[in-house]
Amino acid sequence: MICEFQKDTKEMYVKFEGEIDHHTCQIMKNELDYEIHRNTPNKLVFDFKNVKFMDSSGIGLLIGRYKSLLRIGADAEIINANKEVKRILDMAGIFKIMLIKEEIA
Q: Among 8, 16, 21, 32, which one is least packed by beta carbons within 10 Å?
């Protein structure tokens, strides 16, 4: 996972890589919570471009960070999700609470 913060726009970008499952989620959760607390972004963009697999642990990761963002008045957005990840996110109702955008370079 790569986390980048753009000070000029107060946007934080999280670029996930590989698999998001119960083995990786706790580490990601701790890192994201730290970065959210440290930067207090206006928006957090989750980039799924390099995600090959995601299970229900990933849903919990997103919902938990979404709740943290709500407490500070920030938005969340999902970009570059492949067909399989979109299906999982849609089944979980994530698109009702987070904006999703198609392929972004």
A: 8
